[in-house]
Amino acid sequence: MTAFITALSFVVLAEMGDKTQLLGMAFATRYPWPTVMWGVFAATLFNHLFAVLVGNYITVFIPLQYVQIAAAASFILFGLWTIRGDELNGEDKETHRSPFWTVTIAFFFAEMGDKTQLATIALAAQFNALVPVWLGTTLGMMIANAIGILIGIVLGKKIPERLVKWFAATIFIFFGVFGLYEYLPRDILTTPVIAGGLAVLLLAIFLVAQMSNSKKLSDN
Q1: Do the Cβ atoms of 16 and 82 come closer than 8 Å?
Q2: Collapsing DSSP states into helix, strand and coil, what is residue 109?
Q3: Which among 41, 133, 209, 210 could disulfide-bond with 7, CB atoms 3.0 to 4.6 Å apart, if both were Cys?
């Protein structure tokens, strides 16, 4: 149950401001929202099944503690990725396929290498639980995209995107730092190392935020 709830929560957070959530908003302006949601469901089901199989397979060759450390570090990267933000690169363009298959294929390929898929791999490796992580991440994707459609279409984006992204990023980074503190060997976690690590993290957050702001200004 812990693996399921954790996977669900992390994917909902990972999707806030993510490219696939933006893709859902874009498709919802063109197609009926049930069609968009069914397409998201089909794409996520297969994409995240592949991700959890990869995550479980990793632990056969790499000691679990190392995988847990890498997973914790990846959550910090996901937080920085969330701060940076995503944008669509033509995935929402019209095709000659039916609406369902247009949405399904676009979402499947948009998820390949995306932070949500990588988070699914990390969670599957950390918990070594295929089905709970698979179901949790799939449901999390559905919830996140439902929220995206609601914000983008029904509420007219009244909730500031910046606030949503920073909230999600903060949660990711917190769990990443907590995970590193829990799984790294005690002899490594000296006061200078902890202080230096936090300083590097704060600098990284500042630089990524500056890059994100500069990109927005150049786009405008």
Answers
A1: yes
A2: helix
A3: 133
**Distant-in-sequence, close-in-space partners of 133: CB < 8 Å, separation ≥ 6:** 3, 4, 7, 52, 55, 120, 123, 124, 127
For the chain, the domain total comes to 1
- Tokens in use for 40? 């998201």
13-35 pLDDT per residue, tens: 877 766 677 777 777 767 788 88
CA distance 46 to 34: 19
Tokens of 49: 């099944």
pLDDT, residue 32, reads 83
Does 174 fall in a domain? yes
CA distance 80 to 85: 9
Q: Residue 63 sits in which domain range?
A: 2-184
Q: How many CA atoms lie within 13 A of 147 on its CB side?
A: 19
